[in-house]
Amino acid sequence: MRRRLCIPDLGSARAVILHRPHTVVTALTRQLQAVGLQVECFWPELPAVARAADYLFIDVDTAHDDQFPWAPGEAPLPTIALIGSEAPGRIEWLMNFGADAQILKPVGDNGVYSALLIARATFDARIGLAGEIDTLRRRLGQRQTVVQAVAVLAARGKSETEAYEQLRGMAMAWRVSFEEAAARIMSSVNGPRDTRTNKGSDLG
Amino acid sequence: MTRIIDLGLLFSTTGPYELMGRASRAGALKAIAQVNADPERDIFFKSVERDPGGDIDAYAPLCEEILNNSSARHVIGCTTSWSRKEIIPSLERMGGVLWYPTPYEGFEASDRVVYAHACPNQHLLPLLDHCFGSYGKRIYLTGSNYIWGWEMNRIARELSGRNGAEVLGERYVPIGSTDIERLVDEIAVLKPDFVLNQLIGPSQYAFLDAMAALRSRDPAFAGRRCPVLSCNLTEAELPALGASTEGVISAGPWFRGLAPALPGNEGRQDFGSSFEAAAHASVMMLARLLADTAGAEDLSLPELLALPGAETLGISARTHHVTLPVAIAEVRNGVFIPVKTYAPIEGDPYLTQIHTSVAQPLLRVVK
Q: Which residues form the ANTAR domain (chain A) (predicted)?
């Protein structure tokens, strides 16, 4: 499938650079400003406000987990790795921390614009996939509920296939997922008991 | 005391885009003569010239030759983006600066280059805006198979989406190919409101000939219906094209007859085309930056642009793009006739700023 690049709105975007004062930062800042972004530099700690930025540049040569107010792999914004040393240990750290694009140091006259586009597209795809995986996991987790709901319907004198079709029909009529329809049936069956249980535990 | 300063010139005066290269070269030479004849200036330019002859692989070595064999730090040169991108690494390595005086597709802001002609917000955006309003929103895109055509048409597709326009077709032709029958056949069937043409050299010439033939045999294309648009056709190429250019609509910073020309021309407008005018303006702007400051010839481009008064030249210290007027002109009886002009706008290579083009009354047309 051909992917059409959605160009992000960079004119009002904010970039944060986590790197000690250095010519790398000067070159990066120049390129970012030429594209139209606002730039802020931090060192050695990344404050929590950095979460609100649109792009983050990190120095893989010196970075360590404690610098970031989030767990490895959970960066809340597109992250671009500035790679100097190609020592495998540093690359391993980067693989764990996660980045959406990379630029090799020294940073020269170009390379930032394409990194911004790639980082944004990769980040958005990553977030989209994570959401999709969440949904699939949830549905997988509800398999047991589906089996139970089909059994409940079948107990009313239908074959298993008919019960399955009936559940599908209900899901369509209610405009919900198959799993959600199954959950509704089970809660209508178990409902009163569930409520009592909850009340009981609340009181307890 | 007058300082003698070497100045590189790197244009192809032969090859597929020789007419453009020659126009740029003529503008640069005109400015050098003007600077050197001015007793008020404390600088004298000595040109150090190399001619790549349209050979892409000759640009970087010849640029390095200029920077190695003379004291020149500034080079006025290149017609295509491809050649410009070829020499940027040499400029970086050897501390040179390129003044690039031809239109291009944007998405670059080298610390080593001044972009002295128009980028898309100064040619393509106003041109499409004008034509969506005047001709319609069913469009066809074509171009030569390389970065200029690809990127310009990508921008056009994006703008079409935003303006409710429909792209009926998009087709590319290899550089130098004159095999454009299929392209014109498709246009004849689709009957778009206009064709955005990013073809270059012989392909463009063959295409315009075939479109002229189509106009004479199909009434749906007769008269001023379905015009062909260009963002780089200027007076420099008209003589090579003849009658087939009739009705072509082009955008650029200046066309003959408009006054004043570019801000950097300092009031002069005796140019054959905007290629010539932008090259002239490049040398004149450089002369302004170097004059009256001993040792300025050894400063980097950012340092030069930080000198007092430099901002009045209209070269953005942020992007190194030049603020330019915008004109839209149509070929009538073999001559570009300006139909619309816009107030000067800052070059926005990454299209990240808000664009509101302010049409202004047609600038004074000089006889």
A: 126-186
The C-alpha atoms of residue B150 and residue B173 are separated, in whole angstroms, by: 11
> CA–CA distance from B239 to each of A140, B79, B200, B236, B278 (Å)?
71, 19, 15, 7, 20
A117 touches chain B (CB under 8 A): no
Check if the beta carbon of residue B287 is closer than 8 Å to that of residue B43: yes
Q: Where are the domains of chain B?
A: 3-118+261-324, 121-256+325-360
Extract the tokens encoding B179: 């095999």
Show which residues on chain B lie within 8 Å of chain A, measured between beta carbons.
Answer: 88, 92, 107-112, 158, 318-320, 348-350, 352-354
A7-11, B28-32, B258-262 — which is least confidently predicted?
A: A7-11
ipTM of the complex: 0.84
The C-alpha atoms of residue B101 and residue B78 are separated, in whole angstroms, by: 8
Q: State whether the Cα torsion A101-A104-A106-A111 is positive or negative.
A: negative
Contact of B330 with B89, CB cutoff 8 Å: no
Q: A182-196, B116-130, B232-246, B307-321: lowest mean pLDDT where? A: A182-196
Q: What residues of chain B lie within 8 A of the CB of A36, using their CB?
A: 348, 350, 352-353
Report the C-alpha gap between B315 and B294 in whole angstroms.
Answer: 21
B109 with A108: Cβ contact below 8 A: no
What is the least distance, in Å, from the CA of B157 to any CA of chain A?
A: 12
Architecture of domain B3-118+261-324: 3-Layer(aba) Sandwich (3.40)
User: pLDDT tens digit string along B264-281?
Assistant: 999 999 999 999 999 999
Count each helix (H run) and each strand (E run) in chain B, helices first.
10, 13
Would you identify the CATH topology of the domain B121-256+325-360? Answer: Rossmann fold (3.40.50)
B108:A110 CB<8 A: yes
Element (H, E) at B324: strand B324-332
Instruction: Give the closest-approach CA distance of A114 to chain B in angstroms.
Output: 10
The CA distance from B179 to B199, in Å, is 12
Residue with tokens 């009926």: B168
Contacts of A162 (CB under 8 A, 6+ apart): A154
* Partner residue opposite B92 with nearest CB, options A30, A36, A109: A109
